[in-house]
Amino acid sequence: MKSASTSQLLHLAWPVLIAQLALMGNAVIDTAMAGRLSATDLASVGIAASIQATVLMSLVSVLLALPPLIAHLYGSNRHEEVGREIHQSVWISLALALIAILVFCFPGPLVGISHLEPQVEEKVRAYLSASAFGVPAVFALRIFMGFSTGIGRPRPVMFFNLLSLALKVPLNAVFMYGLLKAPEMGGPGCAVATAVDAWLMATLAWGWCLRNPNYSEFRVNSQLAGPDMKALREFLKLGLPIALTFIADVTAFTFMALFIARLGPVFSAAHQIAANLAALAFMVPLALGNATSVLVGQSLGAGGYVEARSISWTGIRISMTAGIMLCFTFWLGAPHIAALYTSDQTVRHIAIPLIRLVALYHLGDALQAVAVNALRGYKKSVAPMLIYAILLWGPGLGGGILLGLTDKFGPARGAPGFWIAAIASLWLVGILVTIYLNAVSRKPLRPIPQPAPLSRFP
After folding, report:
1. Residue 153 contacts by C-beta under 8 Å, 6 or more apart in sequence?
2. What angle do CA 244, 424, 50 make, to 5 degrees?
3. How far apart, in whole angstroms, are the C-alpha atoms of residue 391 and residue 380?
């Protein structure tokens, strides 16, 4: 490989960013269109989407092992083994998809945490039930994304995500507002639209990929390989700690929403605006992190250990620079951003200070996202898992409950108390993960363990 540079990272990161912004754009559209219905619809969509994200990302995140595994194979010119790695991810996905479907169909334990008002709970359950239909398509799209990213070709993912975004508004209008004489479903209708959209995109993406001669060298369209226990263990050895890291991250964020829901629909709606904005901003460091992980993996596969370290720090520098710019934008533009999300003056008044806290929260996100993804390129995922679990659930969520709902440290601060604790914990996570990355990349140069050669294709 050629020497790493800022241009290499940006060349790989910008299509990933566009793809992820398009994906997040779906959530923004859902929030905005639900906000035009009622505070109840907005709150129910926010709560249901939080539960959905917790379940799906906790399970789908196992597949985040796919890009670095493929990147190592790609960097070491073992292209013919990429297809077999993808086939093994299909078997893992089938088991994980079944779990997600069962949770969405029987969400009682998760819904019960929030002590929801009956009309909100009814809409939340309807949303989750509709989401179950789209689960297999979501996993299929994630495998496609991991494959394309791992070989350094993210532009097809960008194209299909943009196409998905273009279809979201008309699909939402059909199922939420009853356009074209369809049943008017309100907030839950956006879950139906998302499921239909996901199936369309999964069919188009894999149909295109399997017929594209430029992908034939990866043997993806070979006969589906049966489960290979050695390959599955290698996959899960990296993927399970990544998933547990995501569980700590996503669930801490989701349970924050569920606890804030106890304050009432207005506070929940305001928090949903802030949370949606934080997730949208996170797409920038996440895209840089994904690009960093792939280039680190490809460099290590090719034996470029010094280059891998250089890529890691370049990614962090770019991410923090962009993070500072977004921080100022959110802080100064909070009133205008809140007005874009809702016309409800009460919700807007509560959301403005939360958006300013999101500005500080994002700086921690900008640091940790690139650092932890660089570590995945090194196939290091256990230590980050422990850091995330301890800090995000301890001082993060636990501290948020104390500051937001109790008077242990003065009068209960409500939603801002949860965000203050989240900011402190995320900054600690970012610092510790970066220190660990520095130690890992400084170790004496030695070969990174590679997966054993897989058996020949049938």
Report:
1. none
2. 50
3. 19
pLDDT digits (tens, 9 = 90+) for 314-337: 999 999 999 999 999 999 998 998
Asked whether 244 and 327 are in contact (CB, 8 A), the reply is: no
Report the candidate in 52, 32, 107 with the shortest Cα–Cα distance to residue 269. Answer: 32
Number of H helices, E strands in the chain: 16, 0
Question: What is this structure's pTM?
Answer: 0.80
Q: What is the DSSP letter of 212?
A: -
Instruction: Report yes or no: 302 and 4 within 8 Å, Cβ to Cβ.
Output: no
Neighbours of 248 (CB within 10 A): 24
Query: How far is residue 132's CA from residue 115's CA, in Å, rounded to a whole number?
Result: 23
Q: In this predicted structure, what is the pLDDT of residue 458?
A: 33
For 65, which DSSP code? G
Q: Which amino acid is at 443?
A: K
CA angle 175, 177, 181 (to 5 degrees): 75
Q: Which residue has the higher pLDDT, 429 or 262?
A: 429
Rounded to whole angstroms, how far apart are CA atoms 220 and 143?
11
Q: What is the pLDDT of residue 1?
A: 41
The predicted-structure confidence for 220-269, as pLDDT tens digits, reads as follows 887 777 888 888 888 999 999 998 988 888 778 778 887 888 888 888 88
Dihedral Cα 119, 120, 125, 128, nearest 10 deg: 150
- What is the model's pLDDT at position 34? 81
3-state secondary structure of 335: helix
Task: Name residue, tokens 């960093």.
Answer: 292
Q: How far apart are the first and last CA of the chain?
A: 31
Distance CA 195, CA 287 (A): 24
DSSP 219: T
Q: What is the enclosing helix (H) or strand (E) of 185?
A: none
Residue with tokens 């819904």: 111
Task: Give me the DSSP letters along 426-440.
Answer: HHHHHHHHHHHHHHH
> How do the domains of the chain map onto residue ranges?
6-442
Residue 38 has pLDDT above 80, yes or no: no
Say which residue, 408 or 165, is predicted with more confidence.
165
